[in-house]
Amino acid sequence: MRPATRATWAACAVAGALAATACGGGAGSGGSGAVLSSSWGDPQNPLEPANTNEVQGGKVLDMIFRGLKRYDPRTGKATNMLAQSIETTDSRTFTITVKDGWTFSNGEPVTAKSFVDAWNYGASLRNNQKNAYFFGYIEGYDKVHPASGAQTADTLSGLRVTGPRTFTVRLNQKFSTFPDTLGYAAFAPLPSAFFTDHAAWVAKPVGNGPYAVQSYTKGSQMSLRRWDGYPGPDKARNDGVGLVVYTDSNTAYTDVLAGNLDLVDDIPASQLKNVETDLNGRYINTPAGILQTLAFPYYDKKWNTPGAEKVRTGLSMAINRRQITETIFRGTRTPATDWTSPVLGTDGGYKPGLCGSACSYDPARAKRLIQEGGGLPGGQVRITYNADTGSHKQWVDAVCNSINNALGDDKACVGDPVGTFADFRNRISRHRMSGPFRAGWQMDYPLIQNFLQPLYYTNASSNDGKWSDPRFDHLVDQANAETDPRRAVALFQRAEEVVRDHMAAIPLWYQNGSAGYSARLSHVALNPFSVPVYDEIRVG
Question: Residue 15 — very low, low, confident or very high, per pLDDT cuts 50/70/90?
Fold first, then answer.
């Protein structure tokens, strides 16, 4: 999915009416002691499942929707949720049966048509959905979402409703792990109200998950309440959640300490040295499927010249990852040595050391490679990042200091802050970056494919830098078609080696999920995606 951006925090005023309704332990309860308040950031886009590819919007979708699969909040393993069965004999045509008895929170039944209509909407070029690419393996995608020109079909030819609760999916090539992708929010079902009164649905989304949206005020908060009619096994153990927008994670953290907020799900680096004492053990630090990187704008010719891979590799070798993670992040980050995540395990595709010497700190070689590659474009590297969380400046400055020391030039690298996460993402989406920029990836599902294809495949949904390599694309296609899991992983790792050889993005560190919470809460946990398991939290 999604760029791993602990995104916009917006300042919660701890005074006046807002403090009385949203920001407090008891205050955040909205009149009920069993409602918890949690830090949040405004989503970049409306909360359409196929148009949400960042963390903050994803949190809400995970609360108000359930799909054919769900990823176990402990292990990340894909298990059936609304799928009664997903069957195939050739890894290309799948017959899907939807469980009976599921409805949306407005009472409308969830049917096969709920999925097919949602997927057709998500794939359509005219709907401009960020996650349209996830439907790219379904036959007919090239007609509903052509690479150029107008679409020539309204629906995917590979989707066919065969009964009230059954439909078939025909892919344009074999994709053995396709069923395991279907827990991603882009594949969620949609009620007919989404299509008949779209504006009303966007203002107050209706889903089929354990929570329902009660209200949303942009820049302030979203109120969600437990849906008592939810038929799933993971019913909410609390009465609801108030998601409070912050512009500074330090403010959210101090609000938890003061009893004005129940849960902050990203501890600022500046608070890590005291967090255990401050919260009296109410602190979570657990591995997550998140990789932080520096990406490059390959649409800018100066970063896409012959030999530029030497410059990028040299920059990677000029970064002292171990020193930065130990001094700034204090056990919540680990130096990256590949482009996936340890949470996958070696059987799932994680291969420690795949980056090799290119991810090892070697100032002398770094300087030599940068010189051999033609030097820094424009004589200086400006690392762009969003400044609104208060947590990125410290490590960007540290990365630049490391590069400057390696090159013997205190102006070789500088930080380039952008005021808000939304502005930052908009610049990226509009291809207005002129140098490396803060990037990262929070897995959508625990497959090596998800760490590679969405980010580096030609014109992929989250390929923000527009890197392209035909050999990488070919190896990914081969891996997706491979029915033997071990052989598929090996092919994906060969594709990852292409990323390494070109240093398509610089891997920085694997990120843990971290959270702190008030004494009102119990049973607080983060899933492997670093998102609070809200439905399990108990209040009081």
Answer: very low
Tokens of 393: 């400046």
| Closest CA relative to residue 498, chosen from 438, 452, 451, 436 | 452
What one-character-per-residue DSSP string does 248-309 give?
-HHHHHHHHHHTS-SEESS--GGGTTTHHHHTTT-EEEEEEEEEEEEE--TTSGGGSSTTHH
Alpha helix stretches (DSSP H) within 318-447: 321-324, 345-348, 363-372, 393-407, 421-429
Q: Which long-range contacts (CB under 8 A, 24 or more apart) does 67-70 make?
A: 67/182, 67/183, 67/184, 67/185, 67/187, 67/188, 67/189, 68/96, 68/98, 68/115, 68/179, 68/182, 68/183, 68/187, 69/179, 69/180, 69/182, 69/183, 70/183, 70/234
At 9, phi and psi to the nearest 5?
-100, 140
φ, ψ at 424 (rounded to 5°): -60, -50
| Rg of the chain (C-alpha set) | 23
Q: What is the pLDDT of residues 258-291, one digit of tens each?
A: 999 999 998 888 898 899 999 999 999 999 999 9
Residue spans of alpha helices (H) in 440-530: 448-456, 470-481, 485-502
Report the 10 Å Cβ neighbour count for 75. Answer: 12
Helix (H, G, I), strand (E, B) or coil at 418: strand
Tokens 């690298």 correspond to what residue? 413
Can you state the angle between helices 485-502 and 308-317, rounded to 10 degrees? 100
Mean pLDDT of 514-534: 95
Per-residue pLDDT tens over the stretch 488-514: 999 999 999 999 999 999 999 999 999
Q: What is the pLDDT of residues 189-222, one digit of tens each?
A: 999 999 999 999 999 999 999 999 999 999 999 9
78 three-class SS: strand
Question: pTM of the entire structure?
Answer: 0.81
The encoded tokens of residue 94 equal: 């799948």
Give the pLDDT confidence score for residue 106 in this predicted structure: 97
pLDDT at residue 3 in the model = 54
Q: What's the rounded Cα separation, in Å, for the pair 73 and 40?
A: 20
pLDDT for the residue 11 = 35
**C-alpha count within 13 angstroms, C-beta hemisphere, residue 138:** 27
